[in-house]
């Protein structure tokens, strides 16, 4: 039968679709990849050659600035997120949040930790799979190619 | 648009708990060989007061090594989580094998009841930890 109202919007219906939000496992995996170089550096150098402590500290900070804040902020993908094919974007615009907000978001992770680390588990049950830091800076982590 | 999860929230919590259990099984080896410090409780570090989840790391390690009494005396919450995992794992496996359909969203009332239940359990765990550390 021909549609009596061509061009009309589709009817309201519960159309199931895959969640665009990255799940907790993906987020943990990406974070572990991001911090792996720092942990490895600390285990190898600080334990074996304590004199290199300052060098390792500077290298760790440099890695964090470059990877998590610059890359993560400007492209939405740190090394870990790129590996897990997920992306950090603004909840409102869907665009990368910039270096400064990526830094602020990491600072806000203190809130996730201060309540007995429960904030880090929020993506397990939250509708948008956000941590508290994500809610504060209004970001979401999405899976690549879901067109958030 | 209704966004559907492949697995329900309880199943996600079960997956995370299974990961925690796997880490708990090797945790003493990791800390012994890496020199990395254990996970400190932020609330206890800052204020001296234990949080509802204090002892979970110790209890998880104890449970995965068969030290039942140690686990029970450190954090009964770990037993509850373990029971939750045992009850939910068959559903999780059935879902992963495609034997059951994706989960349906819970009603608002069911969500509210679950929040109350979780809050009650956390409160009871906090009372236990406060008693364990001599605050009550």
Short structural description:
Chain A is mainly α and 148 residues long.
Outline the structure in words.
The complex is a heterodimer of chains A (148) and B (136). Chain A is mostly helical and 148 residues long. Chain A has one domain. Chain A contains 6 helices and 3 strands. In chain A, α1 (24-48) runs antiparallel to α2 (53-75). Chain A is globular and about 45 Å long. Mean pLDDT of chain A is 84; it is low at 9-16. Chain B has 136 residues and is mainly alpha-helical. Chain B has one domain (9-132). In chain B, α1 crosses α3. The longest helix of chain B has 26 residues, at 9-34. The relative contact order of chain B is 0.16. β1 of chain A pairs parallel with β1 of chain B, so a sheet runs across the interface.
Radius of gyration of chain A: 20 Å
Task: Summarize model confidence as the mean pLDDT of chain B.
Answer: 88
The number of distinct structural domains of chain B comes to: 1
Tell me, briefly, the overall form of chain A. globular
Keywords, separated by commas or semicolons:
heterodimer; A: 148 residues; mainly alpha; two-stranded antiparallel ribbon; 3 strands; 53% helix; 9% strand; globular; B: 136 residues
Question: What is this structure's SSE topology?
Answer:
The complex is a heterodimer of chains A (148) and B (136).
Chain A: E1 16-18, H1 24-48, H2 53-75, H3 79-83, E2 86-90, H4 99-114, H5 118-121, H6 132-137, E3 139-143
Chain B: E1 2-4, H1 9-34, H2 42-47, H3 56-64, H4 68-74, H5 76-96, H6 108-132
